[in-house]
TrEMBL record:
PANTHER family: 8-OXOGUANINE DNA GLYCOSYLASE, OS07G0657600 PROTEIN. GO terms for cellular component: nucleus. One of its GO terms (biological process) is base-excision repair, AP site formation. Gene3D superfamilies: Hypothetical protein, domain 2 (1.10.340.30). One of its GO terms (molecular function) is 8-oxo-7,8-dihydroguanine DNA N-glycosylase activity. This is HhH-GPD domain-containing protein. Coiled coil: none annotated. InterPro entries: DNA_glycosylase, Oxidative_DNA_repair_enzyme.
Length: 480
């Protein structure tokens, strides 16, 4: 990114590099807290939001080559923290821990991931502006102030693969289970990366690599029909009150954060002992724009200062060769394990070229492009209408609202509309169609505003919204 600035100054506690990402036109209205705490995905590991310092942090990979079938070596992850300090009103500050310098290629990769998560591209900014204008006009006509204030950005993951897997985790389960499965996948990634766990890896990797594709398979998406799953019995339960729901969800998040915490001595001593002096020599000889990849700090997810060790979300290559039963048991994924493995295999083997898929709709999300991608995604095992719509929403398609039993309840409570799973898609289009092509943004804005009846911070509102959404024992989405 041409306007990205680097600062190689060393702090006393740790080695780090600071990147400045210009916000451009988005600087006028951008709010980091609203951009991050806009969707429940921000609560899923390895993401971490600090509401006190208004800082978002997680590990990011220096390269996205793990999704490239031509690259066989895993890439390094470094911990980054993202903030919007007052002295930089038109830029984001991205601190990268564990290195003295970053090559231009690595800078570009890190910036691209931040831009994707916070939807800072020109297309994203244009969509946000158009939607805000539409919402303001609707608010003036309907005299509803709650139609304003939504930033028009919905948080997503740094990679499409992570979004796809997390959308699988959203289906047919309660929110605490979703958080638990995401956390377990990140813990597994740490175990797979640990050099001393050769026995663990030997048990995890299926020696015969099951389910290899036939050489005749040339389709960009595997034509694997989705298995019809048995319906879950929904047990009777007494609804908990609102306060207990908030406490329950916040307690889970606190437990999630505690799992990521290590002692101060481990964090600082590890960084000090592993840092390679070759990076310093590289910086002194060639300047900060040149740095060899193998000279970078290779510890996974160490964040000095707050002393957290957070594992990264596994890449397709790390999941592709795992045994189904092992993955299902280790991460409590159940039937989702085989679907995630097949997805990872298809990406690693080049049958699902994620980069080309995402670049194909980078300049705008048209209905024809949506229909084409939706048809292709539905051929992936486990990708029904609900999962597909969520993934495509993450890709920037806002004209289709992912619908499930919670949507039915929303229509009843907010719009006094009697709806069913069979009619809900038609019903939401009838209500939110006037916001085309941003129906989902309008729906999400209304859901968020209606759920927060008192003044909450964006993070508190998202926690409240999540607790309410998963009040039922099981959601009933269109998963197949």
């Amino acid at each position: 990114m041409e306007n990205t600035k680097t600062d190689g100054k060393e702090e006393e506690e740790e080695e780090s590099v600071v990147l400045e990402i210009p916000l451009g036109d988005a600087a006028e209205t951008f709010n980091l807290e609203k951009a991050v705490c806009s969707h429940g995905l921000f609560m899923m590991s390895p993401n971490h939001w600090d509401p006190l310092s208004l800082t978002f942090s997680r590990p990011l990979r220096l390269s996205l080559s793990d999704s490239d079938p031509q690259v066989s070596t895993p890439t390094t992850s470094l911990f980054v923290s993202i903030s919007h300090p007052p002295h930089l009103p038109r830029s984001l500050s991205v601190r990268v821990y564990g290195t003295r310098c970053l090559s231009p290629k690595h800078q570009e990769s890190l910036v691209a991931q931040v831009v994707r998560m916070l939807r800072l591209s020109e297309t994203d900014e244009r969509n946000a502006r158009e939607f805000r204008k539409m919402a303001e006009e609707a608010a003036a006509e309907e005299t509803n102030s709650w139609l304003t204030g939504f930033g028009g950005r919905v948080f997503r993951s740094p990679t499409l693969f992570e979004d796809m897997v997390k959308c699988i985790l959203l289906c047919n389960c309660q929110w605490p289970r979703t958080l638990s499965m995401a956390r377990a996948l990140c813990e597994l990634q740490c175990e797979l990366q640990c050099k001393s766990s050769a026995v663990f890896v030997a048990q995890a990797v299926n020696a015969t690599v099951k389910n290899k594709c036939n050489d005749t398979a040339h389709n960009f998406i595997p034509n694997t029909p989705a298995d019809k799953e048995s319906k879950r019995n929904i047990r009777a339960s007494v609804s908990k009150n609102l306060a207990s729901k908030i406490v329950e969800t916040e307690t889970l998040l606190e437990a999630d954060a505690n799992l990521k915490t290590d002692s101060a001595h481990i964090g600082r001593e590890t960084l000090a002992s592993v840092q390679n002096d070759s990076c310093a020599r590289c910086s002194s000889r060639h300047g900060s724009d040149s740095c060899a990849p193998d000279s970078l700090q290779s510890q996974h997810g160490i964040q000095p200062g707050v002393n957290k060790i957070i594992c990264n979300f596994p890449s397709p290559r790390e999941l592709a060769n795992l045994d189904e039963s092992f993955l299902a048991k280790r991460c409590n994924l159940g039937y989702r394990a085989i679907r995630i493995i097949k997805l990872a295999q298809s990406i690693v083997e080049g049958r699902i070229p994620l980069r080309e898929v995402e670049e194909g709709c980078a300049n705008g999300a048209s209905s024809s492009c949506y229909n084409k991608l939706a048809d292709q995604f539905r051929q992936i095992d486990g990708f029904g209408p609900f999962t597909c719509a969520n993934v495509l929403m993450c890709m920037g398609f806002y004209h289709i609202i992912p619908t499930d039993s919670e949507t039915v309840r929303h229509l009843k409570q907010v719009h006094a509309k009697k709806s069913t799973i069979q009619t809900v898609q038609r019903d939401v289009e009838e209500i939110y169609g006037k916001y085309a092509p941003f129906q989902f943004l309008a729906y999400w804005m209304v859901v968020t505003k209606c759920r927060s009846k008192v003044q909450f911070t964006p993070m508190r509102t998202c926690i409240l919204l999540t607790a309410l959404e998963y009040e039922e024992d099981e959601r009933v989405p269109h998963c197949r």
